[in-house]
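Hi R.,

As promised on Friday, here is the backbone we talked about, encoded as structure tokens. Could you run it through your design pipeline when you get a chance and send me back a sequence?
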């Protein structure tokens, strides 16, 4: 299985602070991988580097075999789809108009807009203004935008923030279905372990910028191992706070 994303020795320092240290991992074709860690563990820095919004201090990443640092912005955007928490669109435009505008900017055929609106379940209300959408509808339109240009890799950062349990379950099902149908790979950043267990085959856990666990999630013991790592981190932090 070919690697859609490969990261080797990725390091990012801000002055004397190391946000990511010697990080290496790969994501194969049609594979879904969870990137986990407490706040400040380095997840956001990794995403910024993969999106070409930050340059690493050392190391490199390859997307579809091409070095990310060497990719021109247009080529990079065509290969990558990203949604960070709440999607952002023009509030006064309809859902359909927002997606059509994005399609024109990306050189996507207009017919694909209607297909994606239908696939994410907002076609019947796509004529409404975006600022009148519910949180769940906004997330659905965001997913339509992420998959619109048929990227190789999808990066989702906390895609169910602000949703109730039913809305979260619906978005989980939608992400899984879209991933299978479009044949993309997924990097999912989440604090919600059941979400990672539902959507991913592997989990990567960061702590202070370092990869401390790479765990298959094919068996129930997999997510328990991830949970135990976080329990160990919490106990370590608690013991430091209790020390005189």
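Update: got your reply. Pasting your designed sequence below so it's all in one thread:
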């Amino acid at each position: 299985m070919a690697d859609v994303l490969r990261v080797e020795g990725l390091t990012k320092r801000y002055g004397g602070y190391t946000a990511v240290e010697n990080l290496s991992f790969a994501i194969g074709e049609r594979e879904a991988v969870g990137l986990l860690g407490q706040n400040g563990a380095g997840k956001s820095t990794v995403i910024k580097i993969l999106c070409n919004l930050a340059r690493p201090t050392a190391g490199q990443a390859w997307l579809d075999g091409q070095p990310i640092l060497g990719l021109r912005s247009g080529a990079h955007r065509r290969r990558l789809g990203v949604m960070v928490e709440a999607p952002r669109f023009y509030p006064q435009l309809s859902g359909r108009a927002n997606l059509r505008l994005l399609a024109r900017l990306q050189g996507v055929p207009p017919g694909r807009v209607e297909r994606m609106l239908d696939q994410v379940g907002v076609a019947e209300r796509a004529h409404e203004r975006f600022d009148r959408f519910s949180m769940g509808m906004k997330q659905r339109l965001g997913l339509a935008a992420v998959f619109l240009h048929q990227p190789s890799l999808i990066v989702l950062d906390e895609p169910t923030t602000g949703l109730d349990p039913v809305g979260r379950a619906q978005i989980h099902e939608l992400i899984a279905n879209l991933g299978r149908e479009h044949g993309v790979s997924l990097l999912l950043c989440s604090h919600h372990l059941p979400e990672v267990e539902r959507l991913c085959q592997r989990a990567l856990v960061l702590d202070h910028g370092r990869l401390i666990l790479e765990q298959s999630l094919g068996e129930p013991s997999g997510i328990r191992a991830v949970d135990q790592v976080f329990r160990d981190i919490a106990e370590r932090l608690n013991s430091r706070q209790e020390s005189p």
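One thing I noticed while checking it: The mean pLDDT is 92.

Thanks again,
M.
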